[in-house]
Amino acid sequence: MSGEQVTIRTPEEVALARRAGHLAADVLRMITEHVKAGVTTEALDQICHDYIVDVLEAIPANIGYHGYPKTICASVNHVICHGIPSAKVLKRGDIVNIDVAIIKDGWFGDCSRMYFVGEPSPLAKRLVDTTYEAMRAGILQVKPGATLGDVGHAIQTVAHREHFSVVREYCGHGIGQIYHDTPQVLHYGRRGEGLRLETGMIFTIEPMINAGKRDTKELPDGWTVVTKDHSLSAQWEHMVAVTDTGFEVLTPWREGTGTYSAIG
Fold first, then answer.
1. Could you give the CA distance from residue 74 to residue 143 in angstroms, rounded to a whole number?
2. How far apart, in whole angstroms, are the C-alpha atoms of residue 202 and residue 69?
3. Which of 252, 237, 254 is nearest to 99 (CA)?
4. Distance between CA atoms of 166 and 235, rounded to whole angstroms?
5. What is the dihedral of CA 149, 155, 158, 162, to 10 degrees?
6. What is the largest CA-CA distance in the chain?
7. How far apart are CA 206 and CA 94, in angstroms?
8. Average of pLDDT values for 81-107?
9. In the prediction, which pLDDT does 1 show?
10. Are 234 and 95 in contact (CB under 8 A)?
11. What is the C-alpha separation between 205 and 207, in angstroms, rounded?
12. What's the pLDDT at 264?
């Protein structure tokens, strides 16, 4: 993929993307206290919808996107991505990824986080923590002159160290005034290969890491993607802009990273 196919954003455009990104991240901050045993993913979806519309005065980007029916994706345990909120009740020990996208003044913000429902198993915690570390390692590669292969290689190196596998069918993406734009951001790769990064590029880094094999299966609903071997899966996602000196995370957590290592 040549650099000419990827839109280079002006500082003013990055500012608009930043605003949308901050709002998307705020949804995930807000929903944290509601993720607990006994709550349905549908209830979480409604809370996020009302917050986006009534408080942020933004548009839920997922509703109607290629026919998707809900505001968030809620992917529990062995669901890799695109879990449709439903009457499914969360139980203690579950892990869940909540992925949200919003539109503010024509610009998209997109990010996701993992949540523990009560105390996770040692394997679940190691998987979630490793997936965060992998995302962070990928983001830290971002700077002008680096390649997307550098990003993917950093991610897979962390995952493989723990004998986990990287999902290959789904990837990060360019984002701005288009939800899923060029470039595709693979979460595996070789150093020095792929698109060379330039100041003003904006894209997501969102590795999906499985505790078992990397093979995936899409359910009959046409959306929900699960691990073929029913092993646990985890994902984290940030929007990133390439800056003159490195990168800026456009979806920062305003409450801080807690026990997770800061990025940057």
1. 31
2. 27
3. 237
4. 10
5. -120
6. 49
7. 20
8. 98
9. 38
10. yes
11. 6
12. 79
3 pLDDT tier (thresholds 50, 70, 90): very low
DSSP-H helix ranges across 51-147: 122-139
DSSP state of 177: S
In this predicted structure, the answer to whether residue 165 has a pLDDT above a threshold of 70 is yes
Buried b (16+ CB within 10 A) or exposed e, 244-255: eebbbbbbbbee
Phi, psi (degrees; rounded to nearest 5) at 133 = -60, -40
Output the pTM of the full model. 0.97
* Other C-beta atoms lying within 10 Å of the C-beta of residue 92: 12
State the CB neighbour count (10 A cutoff) for residue 124: 19
Answer for the pair 231, 217: CB distance below 8 angstroms, yes or no.
no
Q: Which of 133, 152, 66 is nearest to 101 (CA)?
A: 66
DSSP 3-state of 18: helix
